[in-house]
């Protein structure tokens, strides 16, 4: 299960509304890369695959591809509005290590090679 705070879901709804496309949903995922092994992906999409996992959290449709789901089980997404320092945060109980910039993590079963950290988180 994925957990999204009420403040994060309200911000996501606000961002979805500004896109003016009724078929968009939030897609979460991970991909190999980043300074700890895996990088988070979070963005809007309108192309749902047959093997995607679908959740509705606080009225937000959330879709996760099957491969990413195992790394995102129990993840907590929050949003804090702190002016220049605010934004979405991801707390992942599956991570045994995270990078300083917060955009990548290492799960217990990963033995890959980390990449340089660019200190940027896409959301």
TrEMBL record:
* Residue ranges that the Swiss-Prot or TrEMBL entry lists as coiled coil: none
Q: What Pfam families does this protein's entry cite?
A: Fe-S_biosyn
Core domain: residues covered: 2-102
Highest taxon of the lineage = Bacteria
Concerning NCBIfam families, the annotation shows: iron-sulfur cluster assembly accessory protein
Cross-referenced PANTHER family: IRON-SULFUR CLUSTER ASSEMBLY 2 HOMOLOG, MITOCHONDRIAL
Record protein name field: Core domain-containing protein
């Amino acid at each position: 299960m994925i957990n999204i705070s009420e403040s994060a879901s309200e911000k996501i709804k606000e961002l979805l509304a500004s896109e003016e496309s009724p078929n968009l949903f939030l897609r979460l995922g991970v991909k190999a890369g980043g300074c700890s092994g895996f990088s988070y992906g979070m963005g809007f999409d309108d192309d749902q695959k047959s093997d995607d996992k679908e959740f509705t959290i606080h009225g937000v449709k959330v879709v996760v591809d099957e491969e990413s789901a195992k790394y995102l089980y129990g993840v907590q997404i929050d949003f804090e509005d702190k002016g220049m320092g605010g934004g979405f945060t991801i707390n992942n109980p599956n991570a045994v290590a995270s990078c300083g910039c917060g955009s990548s993590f290492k799960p217990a079963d990963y033995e890959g090679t980390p990449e340089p950290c660019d200190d940027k988180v896409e959301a």
